[in-house]
Amino acid sequence: MYFHDKRLQYPVKVTTPDPLFARQLQQAIGGVEGEIRVCLQYFFQAWGNRSPNTKYRDMLLHTATEEIGHIEMLATAVALNLETAPLSLQESTAAANPVVNAVMGGERPRHVVEGMLHKHLLSTGLAAFPGNSDGVPFDGSHVYASGNLAADMFANVAAESTGRVLAVRLYNAAHDPGMKDMLSFLIARDTMHQQQWLAVIEELGGYGEQLPIPNSFDQNLEKKEFSYAFFGHDKDGTPPPAGRFTQGPSLDGKGQFKPLQSEPLGEEPVLGPARDGSGAQKEQIGKPSGPAVM
Amino acid sequence: MYFHDKRLQYPVKVTTPDPLFARQLQQAIGGVEGEIRVCLQYFFQAWGNRSPNTKYRDMLLHTATEEIGHIEMLATAVALNLETAPLSLQESTAAANPVVNAVMGGERPRHVVEGMLHKHLLSTGLAAFPGNSDGVPFDGSHVYASGNLAADMFANVAAESTGRVLAVRLYNAAHDPGMKDMLSFLIARDTMHQQQWLAVIEELGGYGEQLPIPNSFDQNLEKKEFSYAFFGHDKDGTPPPAGRFTQGPSLDGKGQFKPLQSEPLGEEPVLGPARDGSGAQKEQIGKPSGPAVM
Amino acid sequence: MYFHDKRLQYPVKVTTPDPLFARQLQQAIGGVEGEIRVCLQYFFQAWGNRSPNTKYRDMLLHTATEEIGHIEMLATAVALNLETAPLSLQESTAAANPVVNAVMGGERPRHVVEGMLHKHLLSTGLAAFPGNSDGVPFDGSHVYASGNLAADMFANVAAESTGRVLAVRLYNAAHDPGMKDMLSFLIARDTMHQQQWLAVIEELGGYGEQLPIPNSFDQNLEKKEFSYAFFGHDKDGTPPPAGRFTQGPSLDGKGQFKPLQSEPLGEEPVLGPARDGSGAQKEQIGKPSGPAVM
Amino acid sequence: MYFHDKRLQYPVKVTTPDPLFARQLQQAIGGVEGEIRVCLQYFFQAWGNRSPNTKYRDMLLHTATEEIGHIEMLATAVALNLETAPLSLQESTAAANPVVNAVMGGERPRHVVEGMLHKHLLSTGLAAFPGNSDGVPFDGSHVYASGNLAADMFANVAAESTGRVLAVRLYNAAHDPGMKDMLSFLIARDTMHQQQWLAVIEELGGYGEQLPIPNSFDQNLEKKEFSYAFFGHDKDGTPPPAGRFTQGPSLDGKGQFKPLQSEPLGEEPVLGPARDGSGAQKEQIGKPSGPAVM
Amino acid sequence: MYFHDKRLQYPVKVTTPDPLFARQLQQAIGGVEGEIRVCLQYFFQAWGNRSPNTKYRDMLLHTATEEIGHIEMLATAVALNLETAPLSLQESTAAANPVVNAVMGGERPRHVVEGMLHKHLLSTGLAAFPGNSDGVPFDGSHVYASGNLAADMFANVAAESTGRVLAVRLYNAAHDPGMKDMLSFLIARDTMHQQQWLAVIEELGGYGEQLPIPNSFDQNLEKKEFSYAFFGHDKDGTPPPAGRFTQGPSLDGKGQFKPLQSEPLGEEPVLGPARDGSGAQKEQIGKPSGPAVM
Amino acid sequence: MYFHDKRLQYPVKVTTPDPLFARQLQQAIGGVEGEIRVCLQYFFQAWGNRSPNTKYRDMLLHTATEEIGHIEMLATAVALNLETAPLSLQESTAAANPVVNAVMGGERPRHVVEGMLHKHLLSTGLAAFPGNSDGVPFDGSHVYASGNLAADMFANVAAESTGRVLAVRLYNAAHDPGMKDMLSFLIARDTMHQQQWLAVIEELGGYGEQLPIPNSFDQNLEKKEFSYAFFGHDKDGTPPPAGRFTQGPSLDGKGQFKPLQSEPLGEEPVLGPARDGSGAQKEQIGKPSGPAVM
């Protein structure tokens, strides 16, 4: 079960509120690369963890719990950036006036309605919501918890990699020192989170032990002649580019990479006529048709 | 641009059609772990690839093109498994009759409507569709193409890991030898696909060069004291479990792992009263309110 | 504006309630081929109709209004079919008991929870909801109202064609005479609705006048050498099958059909290196990178 | 069944078309707080109403029918506001030119493409669609019809409360007198609709009779020691804020409010090892693994 | 920020695992009436709370934090109920065998694949996921946080009312004593949660002070003649049913209820011809058309 | 199976990159009218084609394969248009400066962040993604493959009609000659694609043979008195507008059109009281209630 402390994990300060930056921050809350996703992902991986011991369940719970606090920081940052957003279209006009802009020292007029998420104005009362920077709501199907520990660890690395890419883009886009400071903390945490999931793979013996995923399936049951072949699909048979993936031992040490031009091994599939009573046109059935006969 | 051969990449045969297995196969077509997702993922990574050379763009195109053929194989397998599915509720009754079952040797009655996806009966005319095994349509937001090569490679490993886990579960669930054969091919291809994306990371210098992702961000700008610390969030301060992720050098060789009990570094956030005209209750505003004044 | 009469457009009677048929009827309410879709589609086409006169706006309003009554009929049918559905898993057991089934004359046990939509049990209290037969909620993006009258008419024909296919499949699946009677009415209405949208195309001059859609674009601005060519994409250049679409005058009378083997007319696209500060890996950029420099 | 009158329920006039306001109005059509939602919600509550009499079914039908007319008014308002929207990016440029703006008296340039919903330009031909102000399509899962009358009434109050908040925000954002007039009507109707659903609760005996919802469940079967306790979850045990919800009789008159520090009453859950053949890593299973053995 | 204790808030025990009940429990996790929704709803209401003081922000944080623990309990219950679920279609057959059923004392065979969520088998490895009982993923648009305190309180009452209705239905459907015990706790908490949000309305002065929502809008700006009128929409003018909502003082004490037959107050809307270059048919435009002229 | 050629089907050139046009092009990639939809639609129609011969399966495969190349062209166009998009909010400011604009000859400032899709900046690294111009992800439920050949052909005509309308709108909006050239090719292909699906209907005997769809259902089983009647739903009985759809022979030659005022043929539906244990309020049940009794 869970507890809270009313203080934030890290300070969140905004000197110059910017509703457009509020919009961009939404991606880090409810986007595919965002914090709600990793928070729920780590929780569901922990809650469904089946293993002879609880070590990784325990580990996942710590980080999942941390992530709630990250959503909280970002939601606070969104609200602070919306502090002075325009409530009417006229208010927006005034701010967008070139003369006003000149007075503001040539800076981007920050109060223009045009670039805002309308949900911020119309639905949340100048606050954050669980959706992305284009207003698309968070979707739980992005929560990967496969029941396979190694697959989950790579899904977590992928999430933290796209997450840190996003945080860096937000850092680059930001102009407020408070926002840059907050992001420098979140970027550091993403650095660690990338590391820690890969450390689990290493701790369990690395690629040699863990690959292919799932490692509990007997590889003798797969078509092994295709297990380490890079298939070329160029129309004219031009071979694929040479690289680590076309030569040398495979990373799991169980095979040798090789290139192979892909050719059809199967036949043209023919499904035959449609069944009577299946709702097809009669030409598909090949004879008069009616309601299904039992 | 693209070309086709009417033959399949690998044979698809079904001896005993099973509409329930048709349902399960849908997960490998339109599910999160399925082939439409990886097909579009590799295509969009290729088409958006920005790089001094086109090596990885080229590599991605080969594998993306292969994946279209995998969707085709699975869609064919779904149609073949639906060959004898019941079209009416009465037809279902007959098959579910215990006596009939007994004659069938105690096997599971395969023609019961109860377990089928109704979309197979009502919307597709006994054929596949781009959705998962519970009928949820494929959703393009699962296509990861981040513009960062390393993040994309890990996203691909994650996709192929959950993809092979799924294929193994389908193999274990299957009873038809043709289906087991088809899956033994797809499993082998997933083995290779896991390898090839990791090979790109190795080719580019491995974790030391590629981590943290993105490696183009100056780490001096992140809060480095938190970059390699595993945060404990246990209420009573019980330390997190010891592991590779709490001790030793980090995997990128740029820091030392350490455990750290998480404590609030920020303050309680206070947003203050709501603005006049923002649609809040007057008690939130603290004074009489009306339409926005410009 | 709108008015109601508490009576139904057509009688809805259920003699033998069947929760599984209730599930199947949901497809006709909230599925892609269902009545909510056509109802909203005709309404939005009417409300957005721009034309020198209001004839088609008026026509659309009549049929849109009719469709509300069809949703009502189907929602009533769902509720009646759920009348005796099991509320507990034990209740389900009793009904599924082979002995009980035998007493019921070998009929399909109708009260099994397994095949039901759980939303019917858990969320609606044994009533209909705006979603399809696999529980996926209705999605407004299926409402086609393009602002182009001819495109909309064809979208309406498509909707009524898949709609009547669905209604026929439900008729074939049904066993209750009341349900078959209700469906025989809805099927008749779908017959008319297919006709009426095509009649608009004919009234406006038929294919010769209305195609290609939109007919307000000057065809001299399109690459006319490709406007009536069927492109073959077979890898080995095997020509496409001969048919009405590869020979003879085009249906709009403005060209001649011909087959043509597709070949690349463009070059391999090369996007070049990623930009500094864009969140790519440094290897993609080709030089050291940092925060965006303004 | 249903009928229409071609006239609107209330006049809709636009003097100065504004494509950005058209965008904002979409929230009242297809947003979570919008009219499609309440229209379908009241219809499905009516059509599924199970009760000894039809009073509330009847009441719901009246208001649901009214709501179709509200969608119609708003769709008309959107089309009128899009009357002069730019069709090309160049057209937009001209209007955004500072000099032109100056001539227009410093007003917000109304014809800028930047702030528009692109769906209005590209997909609807300058007309409304069933989606929200950020382009997200209407989603039928927001239609609450639970089969419990009191739960539905509160869901309706919630819908009309957020609906009137939205209408007030639109009123505040609007600059056109016709739009303000139309909204003043819709706001009045929302006032009534909030009242009427609460009046049903009162008519049925108020909180004392209707709470807790559902009132048909025997409260002796719930863990009554926790039924009126406000749980504190502060990490350091700081008690929750004192308020009406921590003291005095409960609103249903069946208990006394009290604060209570939450503590774990359960144990740490341990799921144990994964099953053989379940697709987990072998380390999770604890022994060699293969295909499922029956 | 947040902390965890590895123990559960309340015990979760399962004696007889039932994969079908696991499916039903999913509705309480990721369904519209479920715990993820209320958890995020209370968090976002707290994090965006704008008010002269932090009392309700604080209150919301306590309950939001409690809800994480409820998701955890339910996810644990799902995993335990999936403990013995069949991994292959053959395994399912054996369990469905009538003879086996007879030995099991006529009970419902609990291990049939037909009724299971395939996501439980294929995607999660016999564990919970953030979606509902028909497999539809959790969707963040259900998180209501409007920026208006009273609207939010009613949204919370609605959520806890449908939530308790769901919990009661699950209690009625359950057969395992451990599951009934767990639900008796969750039902008690829902009782309290319904109360506490209504207590906030009372604390702020009740309906007289808080209605209509938002109370910060000057009612003189709305069309007050329609603010307390129940509109009848019967085609033949049959008046609406008499009730508390058609007579007597309104609940806010600011008006008198009355019934009123609805009549069109507006005109038939006419949008006129489509614009040149807008992609309409030329018949809609009324003259020859081409690319947009600037 | 499938093969690729690295060159594009048709040249894609961009002289003046415009991130706003990149946004608009997304509609043609991942929108309802876009290329991913038709590509998957033709593939799934082909893969599920049941017919005495493979002619139309073959035909569909050619065009589906062509469509992959169209997605590729558009994705390339998006990436090229994002070439110079601003990465920071400050960069945007500079470009939006009126003085800079003046120097640019009064043209629309192309680098403003306000109008961009934030997903292009934050999630894709200046490249395309499978979603529409408002950022909504592609949704597989738009792929129509009904199992009925004629219904599918009309669905294809509808898709290509809205597709060509979209392409024309993009052509009109475009300012770059390379973009206009690319679109002139895609518009020509849409011309052909509209034709070819209608040619199939003609080849199969035209409306007389193919309508009503499905033509395999015995029309004697439908309520034929309503099969060719246009129902009027005007409240006051004003007849519907006269047109081809109210008079003359029906287009299938099987009936005569006629107008008919719609009247209720059914009764008011009454569902009766709620069942005990169904989670309704006790007032709905009409007596004391509790847990379901078995």
From TrEMBL, chains A, B, C, D, E, F:
<dbReference type="Pfam" id="PF05067">
    <property type="entry name" value="Mn_catalase"/>
</dbReference>
<protein>
    <submittedName>
        <fullName>Catalase</fullName>
    </submittedName>
</protein>
<feature type="binding site">
    <location>
        <position position="67"/>
    </location>
    <ligand>
        <name>Mn(2+)</name>
    </ligand>
</feature>
<feature type="binding site">
    <location>
        <position position="193"/>
    </location>
    <ligand>
        <name>Mn(2+)</name>
    </ligand>
</feature>
<keyword id="KW-0106">Calcium</keyword>
<dbReference type="InterPro" id="IPR009078">
    <property type="entry name" value="Ferritin-like_SF"/>
</dbReference>
<feature type="region of interest" description="Disordered">
    <location>
        <begin position="232"/>
        <end position="294"/>
    </location>
</feature>
<feature type="binding site">
    <location>
        <position position="58"/>
    </location>
    <ligand>
        <name>Ca(2+)</name>
    </ligand>
</feature>
<keyword id="KW-0479">Metal-binding</keyword>
<dbReference type="InterPro" id="IPR007760">
    <property type="entry name" value="Mn_catalase"/>
</dbReference>
<feature type="binding site">
    <location>
        <position position="160"/>
    </location>
    <ligand>
        <name>Mn(2+)</name>
    </ligand>
</feature>
<feature type="binding site">
    <location>
        <position position="35"/>
    </location>
    <ligand>
        <name>Mn(2+)</name>
    </ligand>
</feature>
<dbReference type="InterPro" id="IPR039377">
    <property type="entry name" value="Mn_catalase_dom"/>
</dbReference>
<comment type="similarity">
    <text>Belongs to the manganese catalase family.</text>
</comment>
<feature type="binding site">
    <location>
        <position position="70"/>
    </location>
    <ligand>
        <name>Mn(2+)</name>
    </ligand>
</feature>
<keyword id="KW-0464">Manganese</keyword>
<dbReference type="GO" id="GO:0046872">
    <property type="term" value="F:metal ion binding"/>
</dbReference>
<dbReference type="InterPro" id="IPR012347">
    <property type="entry name" value="Ferritin-like"/>
</dbReference>
